[in-house]
Amino acid sequence: MAGLDAFGTQLQRGDGATPETFSPLANVTDITPPGIERETYDVTAHDSPDAWREFTGGLKDGGEVELDINYDPREHDGLIADFADSAPRNYKIVWPGTLGNWAFAAILTNFEPEAPHDDKLAASLTLKVSGKPTITTGA
Q1: Residue 2 has what pLDDT?
Q2: What is the model's pTM?
C-alpha cells in the first residue's frame, strides 16, 4: 500500500462545555502526534529460565503533541489561557477524510512564538497528554 496524504489533518480544541464542541486550531503547518510509550519492570529472578532477563509491562504514558503554526496573535493568543490553566483540556487530532481521530486531554506546556526579520510570524506549541488517548479508527 502506498503512503497516505497528511494534508488536511487538524488539531481541534474542545470548548469545555457540555456537550463539548471542538473547533480546529487555525494555521497549523505541522503536527507531531503523541508517541505513546510504556515502562517495563525487570522481574528477573535467580530462577529465570536459562538466565535470560524477564520483564513485565508497567505504566503507560500518552506522550506529547508538538505543533507548528503560522502565528496570528488575533487567532492564537487565546491559547495563553490554556497555558495558565493547570487542568487538562480536551483536544482531537482528526486525520484527513474518514481515517478517524485521536482524542485526548492535555496540558499546554510550551508556547514559543517567533518573529524573525526575514520570515513569517510562527510559533511552536507542546501539549502533554494526560491519561489514556481514545483512538477511533476510520473507514
Answers
A1: 80
A2: 0.90
Q: Is residue 1 part of a domain?
A: no
How far apart are the C-alpha atoms of 40 and 55, rounded to whole Å?
6
Q: Contact at 8 Å (CB) between 111 and 69?
A: no
The pLDDT tens digits of the residues spanning 6-49 come to 999 999 999 999 999 999 999 999 999 999 999 999 999 999 99
User: Is 3 inside a domain boundary?
Assistant: no
Q: Residue written as cell 497549523?
A: 28
DSSP assignment string, 39-82: EEEE---TT-GGG---EEEEEEE--EEEEEEE--HHHHGGGHHH
Domain hosting residue 66, numbered range? 10-137
Whether residue 128 lies inside any domain: the answer is yes
Number of separate domains in the chain: 1
User: Please, which residues bridge with residue 113 across strands?
Assistant: 123
Burial 15-39 (b: 16+ CB within 10 A, else e): eeeeeeebeebebeeebebbeeeee
How is residue 129 written as a grid cell?
Answer: 497528554
Distance from C-alpha of 102 to C-alpha of 22, rounded to nearest angstrom = 13
